[in-house]
Design goal:
Layout: H1 16-36, E1 47-48, E2 58-66, E3 69-74, E4 77-79, H2 81-92, E5 101-106, H3 112-125, E6 128-130, E7 134-135
Parallel strand pairs: 1-7, 2-5, 5-6
Antiparallel strand pairs: 2-3, 3-4
């Protein structure tokens, strides 16, 4: 005497969970890829062996256009030099004094005079400024 089953096991495969995983991975990679390069300008940074552990809140970049011509960027937005101090004050005001840090990205071909101009803004307002460099090999 044989016993028959009333229900059969479905041999199909549901792709719903697989598409959820693919979308989660896609979102993860999109978010992490934007964190890799916080500064969108291509600059040839000077080389150094020392690294600073400070985490800057914003960045100021200087791009060399040629003979005594420079472009200034606050974060990734192009600004005039006179606007940098005001933008820094607005951006760093909510933070405690020891956390008011910004970084200065400069091409290695730019004269030190431009660095001194931006550092004087930091000194006037009591901010700390860092100058990121590439690691020496």
């Amino acid at each position: 005497m044989s016993i028959k089953r009333n229900s059969k096991v479905a041999a199909g495969f549901s792709m719903a969970s697989m598409t959820d995983i693919v979308f989660l991975l896609l979102i993860f990679f999109l978010v992490t890829s934007t964190l890799i390069n916080p500064n969108a300008l291509r600059l040839l940074l000077p080389k150094s062996n020392s690294q600073t552990p400070d985490k800057p809140r914003v960045s100021v970049s200087v791009k060399h256009l040629g003979e005594n011509k420079y472009e200034f960027y606050f974060k990734t937005k192009r600004v005039e030099f006179d606007e940098i101090e005001h933008n820094l004050q607005l951006e760093l005001a909510p933070y405690k004094k020891e956390d008011q840090i910004f970084s200065i990205y400069m091409d290695k071909t730019i004269p030190v005079e431009q660095l001194v101009r931006i550092m004087s803004i930091a000194a006037r307002n009591g901010y700390r400024a860092t100058v990121p460099t590439e690691r020496e090999r």
